[in-house]
UniProtKB/TrEMBL annotation:
Domain GHMP kinase N-terminal: 102-177
Organism: Rhodococcus baikonurensis
Annotated protein name in UniProt: Galactokinase
Domain Galactokinase N-terminal, chain residue ranges per copy: 12-59
Xref: InterPro entries: Galactokinase, Galactokinase_CS, GalKase_N, GHMP_kinase_C_dom, GHMP_kinase_C_sf, GHMP_kinase_N_dom, GHMP_knse_ATP-bd_CS, Mevalonate/galactokinase
Keyword 4Fe-4S: no
Entry keywords, A to Z: ATP-binding, Carbohydrate metabolism, Galactose metabolism, Kinase, Nucleotide-binding, Transferase
PROSITE patterns per the UniProt record, alphabetical: GALACTOKINASE, GHMP_KINASES_ATP
Domain of life of the native organism: Bacteria
């Protein structure tokens, strides 16, 4: 497949719609360094925007028609403003629905979508799509909404429009990322803090291992974990698990809810500690925290899988100083923090383990902290 570029998506728009687009907008995928399943618990998370992006070429219409062409599926959805499509087109059409609820006077739109963000890899391809569409539509209507409001519109699009109960981390990093930084997001008050994350300057690489085990956040398991966290908070008499201590979490009587709460409160503390270490450029000290995060996600939150566990263990044997699954879980990707120049050894170690089990070869990418959604 040809590389994703502004020029290619503009040509795609012409091929699909028969006339030139008004412009092209892009939003990044993300990898979460640490802070998994904490966002909907009012906790802390530390995502990094990827250089891999979703691009949308856009032109407004005035006849109420919505057309969306995806290069990944080579299909065109055609519907009306206010309708939410099924399948892949649910995401862009849910954004239009959400913005219309906020009073944006949408008269119709044509969209062409192309992306270099792997789908189903836990790298937030969905938020890259929703945020690129939201930013494009907002700017084509003279920007009545600020980026905080666009984050909320995209969250509602996924939660209520698509039925994927995401917490808000993905949309926030897509719209507020800065190059060479991670973004410490406090999901209790919505505040953000850029955290220095110059991998090359610190002598490290961050390898993303896409296990190619596909998952869907709308399949019920993500929603179940969210409900269990709410039940645990209720059992403790707090509004969210952010307000609970590690000692309090151990008092939850139900063993499953106790484990869920234990993960959340310890993960919040791990995230706080990683941010502290990165502020001091102490990259080499965060490896154990990454390892502990994976163990907690595997054992207490139960969202890992065999492929992720094998990838993490093989990465550590290959020389990574720390590794963990990233994203919602049930498949997707793992990350490995690797001394610069040692990526090939880690990739080789993981590849050999997958081959020995007869699994499909994983995909790898080197994560570089990129910027936020923008017009190209």
């Amino acid at each position: 497949m040809d590389a994703v570029s502004k020029e290619s998506v503009l040509q795609q728009f012409i091929d699909a719609c028969g006339y030139p687009a008004t412009g092209v907008w892009a939003a990044p995928g993300r990898v979460n360094l640490i802070g998994e399943h904490t966002d909907y618990n009012g906790g802390l998370c530390l995502p990094v925007a990827l250089e891999q992006r979703t691009l949308v070429a856009v032109a407004l219409r005035s006849d109420g028609v919505v057309r969306v062409h995806s290069r990944q599926s080579d299909e065109t959805y055609t519907g009306s403003i206010g309708d939410i499509a099924a399948g892949w087109a649910a995401y862009p059409t849910a954004v239009l629905w959400s913005l219309a609820l906020e009073g944006l006077p949408l008269g119709g739109i044509d969209l062409a979508v192309d992306s270099s963000v792997p789908v189903g890899a836990g790298l937030s391809s969905s938020a890259a799509l929703t945020c690129s569409v939201a930013l494009a539509v907002n700017e084509l209507h003279d920007s009545p909404f600020n980026r905080d409001q666009l984050v909320q519109a995209c969250i509602r699009a996924e939660n209520e429009g698509v039925g994927a109960p995401t917490g808000g981390m993905d949309q926030t990093i897509a719209l507020f990322a800065q190059p060479s930084t991670a973004l410490l997001l406090d999901c209790q008050d919505g505040s953000t803090e850029p955290i220095p994350f110059d991998l090359h300057g610190a002598g490290f690489e961050l390898i993303v291992v896409d296990t190619r085990v596909k998952h869907s956040l709308a399949d019920g398991q993500y929603g179940l974990r969210r409900a269990q966290c709410l039940d645990a908070a209720t059992a403790l008499g707090v509004d969210s698990l952010r307000e609970a201590t590690a000692n309090q979490a151990e008092t939850v009587r139900d063993p499953i809810l106790r484990a869920r709460a234990r993960h959340v409160v310890t993960e919040i503390e791990r995230t706080r500690r990683v941010a502290e270490l990165l502020r001091s450029n102490r990259f080499s000290d965060i490896g154990e925290l990454l390892d502990n995060s994976h163990a907690s996600l595997r054992d207490d939150f139960e969202v890992s899988c065999e492929e992720l566990d094998v990838a993490v263990a093989a990465a550590r044997r290959g020389g990574a100083i720390g590794a963990r699954m990233t994203g919602g879980g049930f498949g997707g990707s793992a990350i490995a923090l690797v001394p610069e120049g040692s990526g090939a050894e880690v990739i080789g170690s993981v590849s050999r383990e997958f081959a020995a089990r007869g699994w499909r070869a994983p995909h790898f990418l080197s994560a570089t902290a990129g910027g936020s959604a923008t017009r190209l």
